[in-house]
Amino acid sequence: MALLSLERVTKRFGGLTAVREVSVEVRAGDLLGIIGPNGAGKTTLFNVIAGYYRADEGRVVFDGHDITGRPAHAIAGLGLTRTFQIVKPFGNLSVLDNVMIGALTRLASTREARAEAERVIAVCGLGPHAVARARALPLGLRKRLEVARALATRPRLLLLDEVMAGLNPTELGGMIDLVRRLHADGLTLVVIEHIMAAMMRLAQRIVMLHHGEKIAEGTPREIASDRRVIDAYLGEEFVLAEA
Amino acid sequence: MARALARHWGALVVFGAAALVPIVVRDAYFLDSLVLILLWGALSAAWNVAGGYAGQVSIGHASFFGIGAYSAALLGARWQQSPWLGMLVGIALSLAAGAAIGYLSNRLKGPYFALSTIAFSQVLLIVASRWRAFTSGSEGIPVPFRPGFVTLGLGHVAWVYLALAVAVLYWGIQVWLEHSRFGYRLAGVREDEDAAQALGIPARRLKVIAVTASAALTSVCGTLWAQYVGFVDPFYVFSVDLSVRFALNTIIGGMGTALGPFLGSILITSLETYLRATLSGVKSGFTGIYLIVYGVVLILVVRFVPDGLAGVAGRLRARRARAHA
């Protein structure tokens, strides 16, 4: 059974249909990639799934619960959480406090939450920065903090919205390793990313959105050779480079 | 224990000194200033729960202050009831009003929220000053002085200790906010509501709780103030000046810090008392000069210690730590 299923989800803003009748299934243990040009509706889809926007039509079902239209905090409480493309750290708080607030979602005691936060911070390679103010961190580390804070809530499904954008090659490598490790540990992930090289290496399946519609779905290899994907997004150069 | 002392040495100094003063000093004028410093400090701490910890900056907290003051004064003057009962009525009314204002904070952000709180206090001012049959209108209500603890007819020394007890209680509530699960999650809501929700935090509910609690705490001090001063004037208790004072003390002392509101109150209240005493008697047009001094102090604080007075101690400690490193 699917852990998350979208059934013909549509989201409109006035006359613009940002997401049109998109159906996707995510099984437990999947690592699903979502690609598409800017404005294709990827982040809008995340906002609908995580409860930040209400779908105009269609249903979102997570782990047997119909979560369509439920508030974001309730959905996160069920174990579905997300990161933000434009990172949203608790700027005036330390890295440790940021992650602790995530850990307090499952834990009642601040002592246990602090221990949990320290563990997650170590996993995410933020150990040396635990006492730094979040807003003082460079972008690469703020992206990591975004992931760490979400992980501390112990999600069963994590939506990552462009956590690799804007990273230098070293940071990018570290982030790919982190996502791989999380997936290997059994976490189910849906990942929006523009960096195709990373996506080809990470994702088991890829969904391609274009003008709010799902125009292709398949393994990375199938996607890379799909005519519509090449025309709308990848371009001929990519196909030649990959070959 | 030793760690708690090291962390809270500032509070120990401030509240310890306040507890010792009445033993040494008998001067009524000085004790009067001390009661006001403690009450304004507690009021600013109450404001801080919403403004500092929850990030909901209100400039209408005089509403709850006035509700507390009027509840006790009316019950006492019209029905000869104990001000403690009036305090409970004030709390109940302020909880309701605070919940309404808190709910508003989910619709209106930042300056729009602040403006709506001003409007609310102005509505209450109009009601209190026009509803002559019930509130005596703009004449205000004298609070009868009946000696005894039940009627809150106390001497100066007793008032110091009562105000001190409230001040320490409010300080303790803020310290709890800094260390509890609720407080951490509230800090998350203050910093970023969307991110907080992604972590499963019911942001709206937490904001409403914080603003409602802040309103009730303010109301309690409104009651005490009315009983202490002995007169309730609608144009004072519902004034924007008063709301600004709660916010100003806290901003100067340090928003979102437990001791900050009290440090701000010490500085501003003693400055005001001193300037009023020395300048206003001169009859040379200096009556309003303390307002100018207010302004200058605020500018200096925002320019040089934007974290407030409580932030200075933290910064000195950080500098020392760096020097050792």
CATH architecture of the largest domain in chain A: 3-Layer(aba) Sandwich
Number of continuous helical runs of chain A: 10
Strand order of the largest sheet of chain B: 1-2
| Poorly predicted residue ranges of chain A | none
Please give the alpha-carbon distance between the first and last residues of chain B.
26 Å
Strand content of chain A: 25-35%
Structural class of chain B: mainly alpha
Mean pLDDT of chain A: 91
Count of structural domains of chain B: 1
Radius of gyration of chain B: 20 Å
Shape assignment of chain A: globular
How are the strands of the largest sheet of chain A arranged?
6-7-8-3-9-10
Q: Under CATH, the topology of the largest domain in chain A is which?
A: Rossmann fold
User: H/E element string of chain B?
Assistant: HHHHHHHEHHHHEHHHHH
Largest sheet of chain B: 2 strands, antiparallel
H/E series of chain A: EEEHEEHEHHHEHEHEEHHH
What does this structure look like?
The complex is a heterodimer of chains A (243) and B (325). The model of chain A has no long low-confidence stretch (mean pLDDT 91). Chain A has helices at 42-49, 72-77, 95-103, 110-123, 139-151, 169-184, 196-202, 220-224, 227-234, 236-242, and strands spanning 2-13, 16-27, 31-35, 57-62, 65-66, 80-82, 157-161, 188-192, 205-210, 213-218. The two termini of chain A are 35 Å apart. Chain A folds into two domains: 2-79 and 156-242, 3-Layer(aba) Sandwich (Rossmann fold), CATH 3.40.50.300; 92-154, no CATH class. Chain A is α/β, with parallel strands linked by helices and 243 residues long. In chain B, 77% of the residues lie in helices and 1% in strands. The two termini of chain B are 26 Å apart. Chain A binds chain B through residues 50-52, 71-74, 76-77, 81-84, 88-93, 97, 100-102, 104-105, 108-110, 113, 149-150, 152-153, and chain B through 179-181, 184-185, 187-188, 191-192, 194-203.
